[in-house]
Amino acid sequence: MKRYFYNLPTLPEQQKIATFLGLVDRRLAVARRRGALLEIRKNILIREVFEPSATWSNIKLSDISLIRKGKGISKSDIVNNGSLPCIRYGELYTTYGEVIDEVFSSTNIPGSQLILSEGNEVLIPASGETAIDIATAACVIRKGIALGSDMNIIKTEIDGRFLAYQLSGPLKLELAKLAQSVSVMHIYGKQLEELMIRVPNEST
Predict the structure, then answer these.
(1) Is there a contact between 149 and 71 (Cβ–Cβ < 8 Å)?
(2) Is residue 3 a part of any domain in this protein?
(3) Which InterPro entries does the annotation name (predicted)?
(4) Do both 60 and 155 map to the same domain?
(5) Which residues contact 144 (CB under 8 A, 6 or more apart)?
(6) 110 burial level (CB within 10 Å; 0-12, 13-18, 19+)
(7) Residue 97 lies in a domain
(8) Are residues 186 and 85 in the same domain?
(9) Structural domain range at position 20
(10) Does 149 share its domain with 191?
(11) Which string of DSSP letters, residue by residue, matches the chain?
């Protein structure tokens, strides 16, 4: 049998390290619980804010928006410290919430070959594994962000953040109902155009 020699910290040092990491774990657990509670409170507030009111009107999304598709950015096109920040459709339900003010991916594909944000667009995945997965919306705040393929891009006259919160909140089930499937769920721009949303009247 071979003998191996290792440099190990003393037992007291090991115990200090374990205690410190245990403290970090406990703080992370508290932060996760606080995050979950804040998410619950946010959802309650969203429901209250968008509660039907006589001072709000129901309108078709097509009345205040133009919808188009993004343009191809594959996973292999994502690079560290690329020249152009970008968003891929899968990140809409894995990485971002309703408002995108910081973008984490980038590519070196020239911007002239892609669709770039103008600011205030609302993004909805065009495909996914389940209807609920793709029933999500996010408003991209910044200009000049490359918007990848397989996503619906809604350029709207109203505040994109307001629309994203409404689509991902009280209208989430209505959005999910639009999804069609053979093997993969899809939401198409023509379907989104018919979606009824609620907006405050000008006097409110």
Answers:
(1) yes
(2) no
(3) Restrct_endonuc_typeI_TRD, Restrct_endonuc_typeI_TRD_sf, Type-I_RS_S_subunit
(4) yes
(5) 84, 85, 111, 116, 117
(6) exposed
(7) yes
(8) yes
(9) 9-49
(10) yes
(11) ----------HHHHHHHHHHHHHHHHHHHHHHHHHHHHHHHHHHHHHHHTS--TTEEEEEGGGTEEEEE-----GGGB-TT-SEEEE-GGGGTTT--SEE-S--EEE-S-GGGS-B--SSEEEEESEESSHHHH---EEE-SSS-EE-SSEEEEEESS-HHHHHHHHHTTTHHHHHHT-EESSSEE--HHHHHT-EEEEE-TT-
- My answer on whether 40 and 61 are in the same domain is no
pLDDT of residue 84: 95
User: What's the distance, CA 183 to chain centroid?
Assistant: 23
End-to-end CA gap in the chain: 83
pLDDT for residue 5: 67
- The pair of structure tokens assigned to 147 is 């918007």
Which is more confident, 171 or 203?
Answer: 171
**45 and 109 inside one domain:** no
Radius of gyration of the chain measured on its C-alpha atoms: 22
Residues 25-54 have pLDDT tens digits of 999 888 888 888 888 788 778 877 787 777
More confident of the two residues 64 and 4: 64
